[in-house]
Design a protein that fits this description.
single chain, about 525 residues, mainly alpha, globular
Amino acid sequence: MAAPMVEDWGWFTSLALGVSFLKCLLINAYLSTDFEVHRNWLAVTHSLPMSRWYHENTSEWTLDYPPLFAWFEFGLSQVAQHFDRNMLVVENLNYISPSTVLFQRLSVIFCDLFFFCAVRECCRCVREQKTSRDVMCQPSFILAVLLLWNFGLLIVDHIHFQYNGFLFGFLLLSVAKHLQSKHLQGALLFAILLNLKHIYLYVAPAYGIYLLRSYCFTQANRDGSISWTSFSPLRLLALGSIVTSVCALSFGPFIAMGQLPQVLSRLFPFKRGLCHAYWAPNIWALYNMFDKVLMQIGVKLKLLHEADLPRASMTGGLVQEFQHTILPSISPSVTLVCTALSILPAVASLWWRPCGARDFLRCLLLCALGSFMFGWHVHEKAILIAILPLSILAMESREDAGIFLLLATTGHYSLFPLVFTPAELPIKVLLMLVYVIYSFTALRTLHRGQGPLLSPLESLYLLGLIPVAILCEGLQADIFPHLWQQKLPFLPLLLTSAYCSVGVCYSFLRLYISLLRQREKPKQL
């Protein structure tokens, strides 16, 4: 990958300052339960000894991130005590004060500085267009806007409340290091990321195969196949040492205290059910929808007795186990097998075919989407693991840009139910519209002369999001109360998840087709 041919990066600072100012304007926006989750974690790590961190259950929002994130919360708590010590009392459940809100919001904004550094490094990895002198038409500028001003990160981190920007900084910086062939640095960053939030296990197969294929095997045959005689045990040892060292620092103290089973039980709570309270737009959302439809048909045909059926068991807003009414219920082992089968072709292709930066990125995306599509208790926010890295590939080809527009528009809209308060409705609609309009305009300009980015049918599908949004927001605002409240309380969520699932599934298939066909030789990033 080549460095960009832009010497003046003042525009990047302006973009970063602009989005930071916007985040400051959102400090007093709606607070989700995740705000209390992280406040409780601040209190747990600050007020209790480490031996009790993963046992404390005064709050229902128990610590369920890996140990490095617990230490991250501990570090934040050292600053938090200067804002309001009461927020660090474990017994102060649902504690909210102006100082607490200010600190937690500012902590996310401050930690995003690392995300800014990672974005800039990614922008340095794309080749600029020599034919254009306009900075705003250059891939590095467009990529910076798509990442820094990402709609999903804005509403998930700075309205709903989380630290995804900080975490994605590690992912993007790790990807950038691999694109620069600095594999050990990339492996170290990813190992740290896994010990901050284990959801990134989604993309671990792509990392493992790529590092083994491209770093541990030092040469390839003329046809691009593996040269088995070039395997380097020392390089494998170096990679293993990095991963082992990070995991030892993270989990070592808890292993020494004999608490590893307790920590793992918090990290992998399989009793939480197949779907999150808000359905992620994946294959299980469609599965749930078919189960609901079949149940309604059974009631209409008097094959089922409505009084004996569970009422909205999957959509009551609670995180819990549930059983499907008509279709077979899905177990964690079934989701594991489905996920493994969905990513196997991508991983096999990365291993057997000549692989470079583009192949690694595509395999990473397919692993992220495969896990999102078929995983157990997937959060809707996990779609960002695919959307953000896909922004890099969108700079390279018209086909990838079209897939990005489909996935980003659909995936971002699926996050709408996270912010359901009337005051934030204009904010999320405006931010979404601005981001979508810029994405379409900038990518069409970047890939002009190469044909349309979307087919008529794909464009029609995206336009269909408008009536779906109007209907769902109207239902949630009780504009049509008699139409759904009594018998169909799950209708708005079902419509959003099911419609968006179609777009996510389609994007997943398009990415696979582009990987397996490889009709044309890709340009070097």
